[in-house]
Design brief:
Elements lengths: L1 H13 L2 H34 L2 E2 L7 E10 L17 E13 L5 E12 L4 E5 L2 E5 L5 E3 L2 E7 L6 E8 L4 E10 L8 H13 L2 H8 L9 H24 L3 E4 L9 E3 L3 H34 L2
Parallel strand pairs: 1-2, 6-11, 7-12
Antiparallel strand pairs: 2-5, 2-10, 3-4, 3-9, 5-6, 8-9, 10-11, 10-12
Length: 301
């Protein structure tokens, strides 16, 4: 170890000044990031621990936490676009393996993201007292159904990653809660657009259902029928859920109030963020000590 430090000290003292200070600035950025991550994870753990779990039926308006099971809403089934598996939420990434050459002609392979998508379809969290609509847009999602596989019959090679929340899974949620009547600012038109976007993911079904003249295209008149049916479905769902006195949980406008959806229990979630905070703290101290040591070697102190 002593020999390694001696060699490293000599290299730092003789390193090009530009490269040394660029490296020092990069290390400083990682130091600041580790410090920020420590406080962010600690804040998440304290936030979850200090807010009591509410029941859906008696849940107050505002920032709360709920616990129950994930459940699909009525309407089109949500499926992961790359595996076709039924779920209530998905995130996937498609990466492509590409070759790169440096100035010396040395070849290296790297994975590049060519497509990534996160579901924003609504679903339900249900406990023994009722159901709450979950709008997952901008949520921090922790899932345990994760898959990674490769497509070796394609060139260049592709890698697929997928994360899912499945119907019936235990679900913990903390975010901004509103009764259905108070969330009417989300217009029918916005919900229709969301539903149409979901339908467009299955063009074969659209053709089979609405391509009346069988010309392989959805004409303007046929598309108007699609829009009309989507509007009618949204109105039926609104009436149904209004009668059931449903509410909605979504992202809050307060940056200090995190929107988290997790299949892990509250206690495991707290433990996860506590360990992440400790890890970030250790990284902060290690980087800090290394940076101070490198600066002292450079300055001859």
């Amino acid at each position: 170890m002593q020999a390694f430090l001696t060699t490293l000290s000599a290299e730092i003292k003789t390193a090009d000044p530009n490269w040394f200070w660029v490296g020092a600035m990069i290390a400083l950025l990682f130091l600041v990031f580790a410090f920020w991550q420590m406080f962010a994870n600690y804040h998440r753990a304290r936030l979850i621990a200090n807010i009591p779990t509410a029941r859906v039926r008696s849940a107050p308006q505002g920032y709360i936490e709920l616990a129950g099971t994930a459940e699909a809403m009525d309407g089109p089934v949500i499926r992961s676009p790359i595996s076709g598996r039924e779920c209530v939420w998905y995130h996937y990434t498609i990466e492509e393996r590409r070759s790169h050459y440096d100035s010396r002609g040395n070849r290296s392979n790297r994975w590049h993201v060519v497509k990534a998508e996160t579901s924003d379809d609504l679903f339900l969290l249900r406990d023994e007292t009722g159901a709450c609509i979950i709008d997952p847009e901008s949520a921090e999602v922790i899932s345990n159904h994760k898959r990674r596989w490769y497509s070796n019959d394609l060139y260049p090679q592709r890698r697929f990653k997928e994360r899912l929340i499945l119907p019936g899974q235990t679900l913990y949620a903390i975010g901004w809660h509103q009764s259905f009547s108070d969330s009417e600012a989300q217009t029918v038109r916005q919900e229709v657009i969301q539903l149409l976007r979901h339908w467009k993911q299955n063009p074969d079904l659209l053709m089979q259902t609405y391509d009346a003249d069988s010309d392989g295209q959805i004409s303007l008149d046929e598309w108007e029928k699609v829009r009309q049916q989507a509007s009618e479905q949204i109105k039926r769902q609104r009436d149904q859920y209004r009668n059931q006195q449903l509410s909605v949980m979504k992202q809050t406008t307060d940056s200090k109030q995190h929107f988290i959806l997790s299949v892990e229990s509250e206690q495991r979630l707290i433990r996860r963020y506590q360990l992440a905070a400790v890890g970030s703290l250790l990284l902060f101290f290690c980087l800090g000590v290394a940076l101070v040591w490198a600066f002292n070697q450079r300055m001859g102190l």
